[in-house]
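Worked example 2:
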Amino acid sequence: MRERQDSIEIEVAKLEAGIAECEAALSNFVSVEETVRVNGLLEARRADLAGLMQEWEEVSDSIEANS
């Protein structure tokens, strides 16, 4: 379980960096198409992050219960 928790934390950090990149890209208008593409990517990364955070909480609770 600890290994999965560590793995999730690494994935969360990568997603957070990706979200920051998307937000930065959205601050510089290129085209409508690019804005739509980046916004879709941003929404997907935020959804992935929410799922990982939920899993992290479950794994953390499990580790705590077994300690």
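The helical segments are 2-26, 32-65. The longest helix spans residues 32-65.
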